[in-house]
Each structure stands twice: as C-alpha cells, then as structure tokens.
Design goal:
single chain; about 80 residues; mainly alpha; Cytochrome Bc1 Complex, Chain D, domain 2; 4 helices; Uncharacterised_YmfJ; DUF3243
C-alpha cells in the first residue's frame, strides 16, 4: 500500500519528512518552497488516489504561483498541527 492511498497516512508521511527536514536545520521558508516544488510534481505526475488528493490537485491546477505557494504552506501547517 502506498502512502498516497490514504490521506491520513500521507499526512503522517509528510509530518515525518517535515520533522527530518527541520532536524537537519531547514528553516520554514525553505520547507515551504520545497513543499511547493513537491506539490507541483505531484499535481503533474501523480494521479490522486483519494478524494482529498483530488481536491488538492484541482485547487493546484487552477491556482497561480502565489496561490500554489499558499496551498503548499497550508499543507505544511496542517501536518505540523497534528504533532
């Protein structure tokens, strides 16, 4: 089973990666920029596996660059809030 199959598992995976990045000294701006790049990759190359990912992909596809950065930043905040 892929972490993309279940949104809860996806958030846990992101949270683990976020903890690792912060442990390596990445600041919030760098994490947010990296999240934006990852969001772009996922939206372009990965088929959504559940309803939540489909909504995120749809939002990403209609967003401008500033909005995409905001979506990525909110995903970072979302997984941080579940620590």
């Amino acid at each position: 089973m892929s972490v993309l199959d279940n949104f809860g598992q996806w958030k846990e995976f992101l949270n683990d990666r976020l903890d690792h990045a912060q442990g390596e000294g990445m600041d919030e701006a760098t994490v947010s920029n990296l999240a934006t790049e990852i969001g772009g990759y996922l939206a372009t190359n990965v088929e959504p596996k559940n309803a939540e990912e489909k909504v995120l992909a749809d939002l990403w596809n209609v967003a401008n660059d500033e909005e995409k950065h905001a979506i990525a930043h909110m995903m970072v905040k979302l997984v941080q809030s579940h620590k």
